[in-house]
Every structure is written in structure tokens, then in C-alpha cells.
Amino acid sequence: MTENINRIVTFFAGESLCGIDILETQEIIKTTGITPVPLAPDPITGIINLRGSIITVIDLNRRLKIHDSNDRCLPGSHRIIILRVQEESIGLRVDAIGDVIDITPEDLAPPPGNIHGIHGRCFQSVVRHEQGLIGILDIATVLE
Asked: 3-state SS string over the chain?
């Protein structure tokens, strides 16, 4: 019997350890050359030109309303995770990249009921791992 194993890429938004299914990611790049967009909503950091494609970049900290600093975030450690969503590429700016880990469906648990507001809606599940508790993002909700 084959076990369903999913791979997730982990990353930090402030002190929060988050993850997304690796199949939702296109690539991870350094944070460079972001052009601000006047009058854009607050979570939108700007746009980048990635090999001829214009990609909107969303700051995950702003989206989740996380404003505290991350001790793990050294200068230059910010990254942009390029996501492929409905035939469009979107960039998600994060504080630092973690590891790629394997999980099974049995590892997933619903997020705690006491997480309210944007935090509660943006997480579809949590995974207990040796790195700590990882919140698995619901990308559709993050991008609303």
C-alpha cells in the first residue's frame, strides 16, 4: 500500500512558521527589484519583472497583520515564493525560507479554534513537526 506523502516548503512570517504545498510553488527567488505600485492595497509590496513576466508581490507579514520582527530574519534573508494560481504567477514575500518536509494526511490537524480574524481564515491546517508547529496556508484566502 502506498502512503500519500505531500511535500511542503516551510518559511517564516515574523515568528510564525508557515508552509505551503510544494506543488503550489513555481520557484523561490531573492527579494530584489520590487517596484512600488501607487495606490495599491497595503499587502501589495509592488511588482517585479521575472524573465519578462510582470508579477505582483504580496507581503505575507502585512497580509497576516504581523508587524513584529523575526530574529531569524537576517539582512538579505527575505525571499519571494512565486506561486502559480489559476494561470497567473503571484509573489509572496516572506522573512526567511525553512526546509522542504514530507508530511502525510494523518499529520494534518485543523487550526486551533481560538485563532480569529485574518489569522484563522488564512490557515487551512497545522502540522506538528520537529521544527515546531507549522501553519499550512490556504493560498486562496491569503490572495483574497
From this structure: CCCCCEEEEEEEECCEEEEEEHHHEEEEEECCCCECCCCCCCCEEEEEEECCEEEEEEEHHHHCCCCCCCCCCCCCCCEEEEEEECCEEEEEEECEEEEEEEECHHHEECCCCCCCHHHHHHEEEEEEECCEEEEEECHHHHCC
